[in-house]
Design goal:
Largest sheet: 5 strands, parallel
CATH superfamily: HUPs
Helix content: 25-40%
Number of strands: 5
Radius of gyration: 17 Å
CATH topology: Rossmann fold
Structural class: alpha/beta
Strand order of the largest sheet: 3-2-1-4-5
Shape: globular
CATH class: Alpha Beta
Order of helices and strands: EHEHEHHEHEHH
Amino acid sequence: MKQAIILCSGGMDSVTAAYHVKSVMDYDKLIFFFYNYNQRAYEGEKTAVQYFASVLKGDFIECDVRWLDSVSTSMINSDKKPEDMSSKSIKNTEKESANWYVPCRNLIFISNALAYAESEFIKSGIQSDIITGFKNDGAETFPDTTKEFADALTNISHISTAAKSKILSPLIEMDKEDIVKLGLKYSIPAEKTFSCYVGPEKHCGICLACRLRKEGFYWANITDKTAYLKDKARL
């Protein structure tokens, strides 16, 4: 038996990766790993992940890593009001991205998933791959979302675990526009995904994640059905 452990935040990228895995990759079971790290968007993200896990007939597992909040320097874990990006270009967002970076978040997420995969292998001989929604998007590229990062962790898995799980990023060569188009191909109800950094239950419309989401739909020439709290934010 082989299963896919999908690291899913409920956003467009990880949800589209899940649909891609379900559609074209050969797994007997899907497991949706969702992480609680006291993020502002916890409620919106969890609702989205549970919804898509149900639609794709996968298991839902919530992992408690709330301690990460105590070391986070990110606005994802603070009450600070985000800068309204609606009137600014997001071509160069390195500084803005830094405001949302959670230290070692994906390293921690993947390590937890690898521990689960190793346990499954030891107990039942089940082989697991770890699936991420990492993408090729210079506007929102964090150091722990690159192909090099994922490949390095695959190597660590192979030298340190019996399960030898792979960390796979099927969308790594795509940008947000490509992902929106792929989502349409898979008939994903995009309005059910949740991308906002702020939350808690609705898209703010002004944070970096919301802006990138809007631009993805704009350049894909696909209607964005997302209900934003600030609907008139300009592209």
